[in-house]
Specification:
By secondary structure, the chain is of the alpha+beta class. It has eleven helices and eight strands.
Length: about 290
């Protein structure tokens, strides 16, 4: 095997900035690096230089690119020396890749121009109902409030009574009491939360929490100093169907993907039908393709 010669010229940050506006071709440029008969020039890497960052960061990016380029060229050379002529013939793969790349760019351009990404509530609800088993929960979730009250707080029986009530009047009274006496209060803005988050807010160890979540809508966890009151307004347990509001965005993404696929199939059929009508397709056998 021929001796491998690698010549690396790392230009300083000053040189990079000085060359910013040059228009020299590779033939006129001094190479930055050489591997066998391959050369790397400043014009190949100038886009890596960010003039809004300091020269040290820019130089690191350039150095890393040069190192990667050298490794790639060395491996390419080894491949060329060790693979058979048949193995080195990648023209078909390149043409297939080129075809896929160009077709994909065209399809994405049409999709970007014409795809409707707006869905009605009915479309989302229909999909949710039809495929509800795809949206099973992997954890318990609740809509709840949690209140921490010192045992020294006055008339604790009142806050218990008000929180257990469902009337708006009693909840208003509870909020006043919470404002005056509670050390902690969280209603999570009425959003669904997983019960692990709720449990993390209670700094009293208990083995009953998970059971309480499943069996009660109101419970307390306490020690000699404080009381945590948890009121659950709604709950969904593991393996139940997720509420629509939590999976609505996911459903929209699924529907968009479905529309994209339908549009691609329509583009392909329209191209085929147009070519058939204009006699641009010839099939050299007796079997006709089905539309």
């Amino acid at each position: 095997m021929k001796k491998i010669t690698i010549i690396i010229y790392i230009l300083s940050a000053t040189l990079f900035f000085a060359c910013k506006n040059t228009n020299t071709t590779n033939k006129d440029e001094k190479p930055i690096a050489q591997v066998y008969d391959k050369y790397l020039y400043y014009s190949d890497i100038k886009n890596l230089i960010n003039y809004n960052t300091n020269s040290e960061d820019s130089q690191i990016n350039v150095d890393n690119y040069i190192k990667k380029w050298i490794y790639q060229e060395l491996l390419l050379k080894k491949a060329e020396l060790n693979l058979s002529e048949n193995e080195l013939d990648v023209s078909r793969q390149i043409e297939k890749y080129r075809t896929r790349l160009i077709v994909n760019k065209y399809e994405q351009k049409i999709i970007h121009q014409k795809l409707d990404t707006i869905f009605t509530e009915k479309e989302i609800n229909d999909y949710y109902k039809k495929y509800s088993n795809n949206f099973k929960l992997d954890k318990n979730i609740v809509k709840a409030i949690i209140v921490e009250i010192p045992r020294s707080a006055p008339n604790i029986w009142q806050i218990r009574k008000w929180l257990k009530s469902d009337t708006e009047k009693d909840m208003d009274k509870a909020k006043v009491y919470i404002h005056d006496h509670a050390k902690k209060f969280e209603d999570f803005n009425g959003n669904w939360i997983n019960t692990t988050t709720l449990k993390s807010m209670i700094d009293i160890k208990t083995s009953r929490f998970d059971n309480y979540i499943k069996t009660r809508d109101y419970f307390e966890i306490s020690d000699s100093l404080k009381i945590f009151i948890i009121k659950i307004d709604n709950k969904k347990l593991k393996n139940e169907i997720s509420p629509l509001e939590l999976v609505k965005n996911d459903i929209q993404k699924i529907l968009i993907t479905k529309r994209k696929q339908e549009m691609i199939e329509r583009i392909e059929k329209e191209a085929y039908d147009d070519a058939i009508d204009n006699k641009k397709i010839v099939i050299y056998n007796k079997r006709k393709l089905k539309n």
